[in-house]
Amino acid sequence: MSVISQVILNADEELRYPSSGELKNIQEFLQTGEQRVRIAATLAENEKKIVQEASKSLWRKRPDFIAPGGNAYGDKQRALCLRDYGWYLRLVTYGVLAGDKGPIEKIGLIGVREMYNSLGVPVPGMVESIRCLKAASLALLSDADASEASPYFDYMIQSMS
After folding, report:
1. Residue 132 marked as a ligand binder
2. pLDDT per residue over 94-121, tens digit each?
3. CB burial class (10 A; 0-12, 13-18, 19+) of residue 120?
4. Which of 9, 116, 128, 132 could link 121 by a cystine bridge, Cβ 3.0 to 4.6 Å?
5. Which residues does 148 contact at the CB level (< 8 Å), separation at least 6?
6. Which residues contact residue 86 at a Cβ distance below 8 angstroms, ignoring those fewer than 6 apart?
7. In this structure, what are the phi and psi dihedrals at residue 62, rounded to the nearest 5 degrees?
8. Which of this chain's residues are annotated to bind (2R,3E)-phycocyanobilin (predicted)?
9. For residue 139, what are the contacts with CB-CB under 8 A and spacing of at least 6?
């Protein structure tokens, strides 16, 4: 949920106007809007490149994933992995745009460990894939934008670990 939505909901629940501190938070949120939109646009426009780079990096680190018997062995399994990488990258853009980790949690992390465990997908491998997505993504951003985007990747990594 965005800062604006949260302030409005909190104020409404308490039947009051937003406080000066809450209004300051909204002002800060709006001041970073251009940066957040720029980051999300860069990640979205480069999704294919990011996913390809992240997967190459992961396969170099963990060739057993694409070897016979590995979870990403074969075209179908590999395509499913790449689909998930794109999905996680999209979750990061949602968090960046909202200026909050809430969308990542609500949309993508609830039950993820259980899902991967039930499918026999090693969760540590997914965590490593998020690290590779982070590296490939941040390489395309300026230092300031990378600093803003990094915590959203870190949140996913920590939540899945």
Report:
1. no
2. 999 999 998 888 887 776 777 777 777 7
3. exposed
4. 116
5. 32, 35, 36, 39, 96
6. 47, 51
7. -130, 70
8. 71, 81
9. 53
Looking at the fold, whether 27 and 94 belong to one and the same domain comes out as: no
Written as one letter, the residue type at 14 is: E
Can you tell me which residue has the tokens 């600093």? 147
Distance CA 158, CA 10 (A): 28
Rounded Cα distance between 159 and 161, Å, is 6
Residues 6+ apart with CB under 8 A from 20: none
Which tens digits make up the pLDDT trace of 62-98? 999 899 988 888 888 888 888 889 999 999 999 999 9
Please state, in angstroms and as integers, the Cα–Cα distance from residue 11 to each residue in 21, 98, 156, following that order.
12, 19, 29
Q: Indicate whether 1 and 38 sit together in one domain.
A: no
Structural domain count, the chain = 2
